[in-house]
Amino acid sequence: MALDINLKIYIPEKIVLNQDVYRAVLAFDDKTITVMNKRAPTIVALDMGVMQILNENDDIIDEYYLSGGIADIKENSCTILTEAAFKKSDLDLEKVTEMNNQFKNPFYSWLIDEFKRLS
Predict the structure, then answer these.
(1) Which of 80, 30, 24, 28 is nearest to 51 (CA)?
(2) Which of 13, 20, 22, 50 has the fewest CB within 10 Å, making it most exposed?
(3) Is the pTM of this model over 0.85?
């Protein structure tokens, strides 16, 4: 498997992810955009949603919830700037409900709805 894309996710406090990946799928404009090697340079405004990391068989190997933001896609890299990003496997309904109770936020409300929809 050729890990051709350097994928980075930045939130204001830190780098959430800095990993070489095969392919990534991002939510934007009620659609998705696939980041792959040698893609034409593109800057997109991201929607609140799930970012998927895929392997060479297009199997999902990891997922992140993003609060929106900007993706700067170049030939072999994708840099995402966002307010909040969480690895999907690190969250559950109880945790996102607690986050929303501490700090009311449309993203946390969306996450609650997403977890309820998935259960």
Answers:
(1) 24
(2) 13
(3) yes
